[in-house]
Design a protein that fits this description.
469 residues, Rossmann fold, six-stranded mixed sheet, two-stranded antiparallel ribbon, 10 strands, 10% strand
Length: 469
């Protein structure tokens, strides 16, 4: 009996889906073309959710990670759309049976629309993500959605053209507005970034033998150019690392941070950069584990371990393991783990440390790196992504928040984090993103040491109160 019941439901589902296709493709159809039941509403809901999950996975960059938050958003969107149609039906004074049939007909009409809309638009948001990128295609797809609503009003509720158009426009605009107040979350997130084909092509023309041979003189030049520490002065040494070589955003950040620190934090002559970028091969040594280890080893010899402080800023993509992405296309480089960073610092004898890591899942670096004499700041929690990278980005969100915004207003490395975290929280709320949750660890002894840097006020009683944009 149960098998026969399921068979009947599947037959009814097929009839409803065929009727839905006739709606969206402008084929003749009567209101009796749909078979209404509560069971059919549930079948259609399940089908739409499976379809949304499958299609969005196909268009997501791989590897992709599923987010249950995306299901919350998806359910809220469909329920809101059905609520809108319910209100429109009541305004039209439709019978209860016609109202139910309208809701079912809408769900039955969505599968084909979803496939076309998702695959052609490659969306990042249901509506406004497309509108921001503009284009005739997006406008045509939205007009198609409006036309579907118009046909449903005409076919199911048997309304005049004028009244159908009036209600369809209201329903369409209300549905469009859902992107403004329903918290948006993607169904699929990509752990690994896409690659820039033009940069990748240029890298293929490099001589790897020459590239690696050049590292020795470049490292010697960079390290021999570092100034000695000053006795009786708490000197700050800076190392910046741009790990992902196929996007300029990370180069932009390390160059900005180095210029900022040389100018405002007295690191001129005591700063160096390791960068993976096709445009800087003759300017900076590569950002890889060996160059980082050698850099810290030499800086550790120059520094006074009791007096001086190292600030290391690492920016790239990241992964959940956790690992800091070191990627330069066909150049064979290994990602960097938290334990490798810790080992390099310990072997170098560097005691006082400020470590800032900007990458997805960078919170996973905190536990392996923490010591009483260390300040650690990360762009995201261990299970969260950070945002703002990409081939079109100038700065990551964290880089903007901490270095451009917060440190411009508050030179205290610790207090600036609070300003940056609030800036990021506000931005992600406006953009309806899942919060990245930047993290901070303050060792028991590091705050007093940072107070000695250049006479700046690194203390608990800082009177500064930020004004957030």
């Amino acid at each position: 009996m149960e098998a026969k019941s399921i068979q009947r439901q599947l037959i009814a589902l097929g009839i409803n889906l065929r009727a839905g296709i006739r709606v969206v493709t402008n084929q003749p159809l009567t209101r009796n073309g749909f078979i209404y039941s509560i069971d059919q509403l549930l079948w259609l809901f399940a089908l739409l959710f499976c379809l949304e999950i499958s299609v969005t996975y196909l268009v997501a960059e791989k590897p992709a990670t599923f987010s249950s938050y995306g299901l919350n958003h998806l359910g809220a969107v469909y329920l809101f759309d059905l609520l809108i149609l319910l209100v429109m039906s009541r305004l039209a004074r439709a019978e209860a049976s016609d109202t139910g049939k309208l809701l079912l007909a809408y769900l039955a009409s969505m599968p084909l629309f979803i496939v076309v809309f998702q695959t052609l638009s490659l969306p990042t948001d249901r509506y406004f993500g497309h509108l921001q990128s503009g284009g005739l295609l997006t406008l045509l797809l939205l007009a198609w959605h409006l036309y579907i609503l118009l046909r449903l009003m005409r076919i199911v509720l048997s309304l005049s053209l004028g009244k159908s158009l009036h209600l369809a426009i209201i329903a369409f605009l209300l549905s469009l507005s859902s992107s403004l107040f329903l918290p948006y979350s993607q169904l699929w997130y990509s752990d690994e970034p896409g690659q820039s084909d033009s940069v990748y092509d240029k890298l293929h023309n490099l001589s790897l033998e020459d590239l690696f041979y050049d590292q020795y003189p470049m490292m010697d030049k960079a390290l021999n150019g570092l100034a000695s520490q000053r006795s009786g002065v708490t000197d700050l040494y800076l190392v910046t690392v741009a790990g992902y070589g196929l996007e300029n955003v990370f180069l932009n950040e390390v160059e900005y941070v180095r210029e900022l620190f040389d100018r405002r934090f007295d690191t001129i002559g005591r700063s160096m950069s390791l960068v993976n970028n096709i445009g800087t091969l003759s300017r900076y040594p590569l950002a890889n584990r060996h160059n980082l280890y050698d850099s810290l080893s030499v800086i550790g010899e120059i520094m006074d371990p009791d007096e001086d402080v190292l600030f290391i800023f690492m920016t790239s993509h990241g992964s959940k393991e956790p690992k800091f992405s070191v990627n330069f296309g066909p150049v064979p480089l290994d990602n960097i783990t938290p334990l490798q960073v810790r080992q390099a610092l310990d072997d170098a004898g560097i005691v006082w440390r400020v470590i800032v890591i900007s990458s997805c899942y960078s919170g996973g670096f905190i536990e392996p790196l923490r010591t009483p004499k260390t300040l650690i700041i990360t762009a995201a929690d261990r299970d969260r992504q950070s945002f703002g990278c990409g081939v079109k980005s100038e700065f990551t969100d964290f880089g903007t928040a901490y270095f451009k915004y917060a440190l411009d207003k508050q030179p205290d490395f610790i207090e600036a984090f609070d300003i940056a975290a609030k800036w990021i929280e506000d931005k992600e709320r406006r953009e309806q993103r899942k919060h990245s949750l930047p993290q901070r660890f303050v060792g028991d002894e590091i705050r007093d040491k940072l107070a000695q840097l250049g006479g700046m006020a690194y203390n608990e009683s800082t009177s500064y109160r930020p004004t957030y944009r």
